[in-house]
């Protein structure tokens, strides 16, 4: 493979917060390159695809969103490294969201590469492939109704098409990843770790020898990942996410290679920040319940969002829905921990424990 000098993985942060998303290929370490690819209608701007050169060809972590602009930059990026899409032997996809999975599935189908995905995402893919548009919309409506945010549904439908542009982009992977395992890439070994939370099938890939962590959306360098935003319902996504963070924290301190945002120097530091954020969010959600908020929507209105500390009403409909779902996850964990009472119904209602006689768990 061609030799290229390693880049300073943290130097890109000094050129501006959004510089990480600019098109091009950045060398992170010998044989490891970061290739940001564009996202349509998405505040995240880009997704980082990581190219690993091995003696057997290319292994990529994630593949991008299957849109023409992304494919054009994908092909150009590989050409700059002296490769083409035919050289890709395997995609290790961190999770099934379309900005990670769909282009990997399309390219692998064209050229015979293999796609690997965590088995926890199988119910999500199967729902996308088999459910009717009406069933998908009914699921969205029920989830919003359960959070006390049914009024968002019309705006949600307008902004989020119920059906992917091409369901062929969601064909099942060639290999399901099950449990924690070590992947032998010839001259590189990756530790594949199941990290449910963002989705139930999420995986991260650690290269301890090179001190690299390909973190997907599990650990992002500048924002907090959404929790449990997936077609198949999960009762306790935040519990799973926090447990997965603890698993990653138990690894050596590695250079953090996120799916969105710049590369940073300490996985431990960022994991600690995320753990602290969610504990503070749990406390704030509990305080909101004691202040009279009863549904996830009502609690989300009390909380503040984004680094600018915005009110929920200042966000767009899609972000309001994500914020409400995340708040629901915090409230469900508080109920599991025995800190709030929970009454299940068409809309899930939470209350202080002293109201347990009125709001049975």
TrEMBL record:
<dbReference type="InterPro" id="IPR036866">
    <property type="entry name" value="RibonucZ/Hydroxyglut_hydro"/>
</dbReference>
<dbReference type="InterPro" id="IPR001279">
    <property type="entry name" value="Metallo-B-lactamas"/>
</dbReference>
<feature type="domain" description="Metallo-beta-lactamase">
    <location>
        <begin position="46"/>
        <end position="260"/>
    </location>
</feature>
<dbReference type="InterPro" id="IPR050662">
    <property type="entry name" value="Sec-metab_biosynth-thioest"/>
</dbReference>
<feature type="region of interest" description="Disordered">
    <location>
        <begin position="1"/>
        <end position="21"/>
    </location>
</feature>
<dbReference type="Pfam" id="PF00753">
    <property type="entry name" value="Lactamase_B"/>
</dbReference>
<protein>
    <submittedName>
        <fullName>Glyoxylase, beta-lactamase superfamily II</fullName>
    </submittedName>
</protein>
<dbReference type="InterPro" id="IPR036388">
    <property type="entry name" value="WH-like_DNA-bd_sf"/>
</dbReference>
């Amino acid at each position: 493979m061609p030799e290229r000098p390693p880049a300073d993985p943290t130097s890109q942060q000094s050129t501006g917060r959004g510089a990480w998303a600019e098109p091009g290929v950045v060398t992170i370490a010998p044989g490891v390159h970061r290739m940001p690819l564009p996202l349509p209608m998405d505040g995240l701007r880009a997704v980082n695809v990581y190219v690993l050169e091995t003696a057997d060809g290319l292994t990529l972590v994630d593949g991008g969103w299957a849109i023409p602009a992304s494919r054009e930059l994908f092909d150009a990026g590989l050409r700059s490294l002296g490769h083409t899409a035919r050289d890709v032997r395997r995609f290790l996809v961190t999770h099934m969201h379309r900005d990670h999975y769909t282009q990997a599935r399309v390219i692998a189908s064209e050229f015979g590469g293999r796609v690997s995905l965590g088995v926890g995402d199988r119910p999500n893919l199967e729902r996308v492939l088999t459910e009717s548009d009406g069933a998908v919309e009914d699921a969205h409506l029920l989830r919003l109704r359960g959070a006390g945010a049914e009024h968002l549904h019309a705006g949600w439908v307008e902004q989020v098409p119920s059906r992917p542009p091409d369901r062929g982009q969601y064909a099942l992977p060639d290999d399901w990843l099950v449990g924690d395992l070590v992947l032998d890439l010839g001259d590189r070994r990756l530790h594949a770790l199941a990290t449910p939370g963002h989705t139930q099938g999420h995986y991260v890939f650690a290269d301890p020898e090179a001190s690299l962590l390909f973190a997907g959306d599990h650990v992002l360098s500048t924002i907090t990942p959404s929790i449990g935003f997936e077609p198949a319902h999960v009762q306790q996504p935040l519990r799973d996410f926090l447990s997965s963070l603890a698993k990653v924290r138990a690894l050596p301190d590695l250079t953090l290679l996120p799916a969105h945002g710049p590369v940073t120097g300490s996985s431990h530091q960022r994991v600690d920040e995320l753990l602290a954020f969610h504990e503070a969010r749990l406390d704030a959600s509990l305080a909101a319940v004691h202040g009279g908020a009863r549904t996830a929507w009502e609690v989300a209105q009390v909380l503040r969002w984004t680094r600018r500390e915005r009110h929920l009403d200042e966000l767009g409909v899609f972000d309001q829905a994500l914020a409400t779902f995340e708040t629901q996850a915090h409230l469900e964990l508080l109920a599991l921990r025995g800190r709030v009472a929970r009454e299940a119904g068409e809309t899930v209602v939470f209350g202080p424990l002293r109201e347990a006689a009125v709001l049975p768990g």
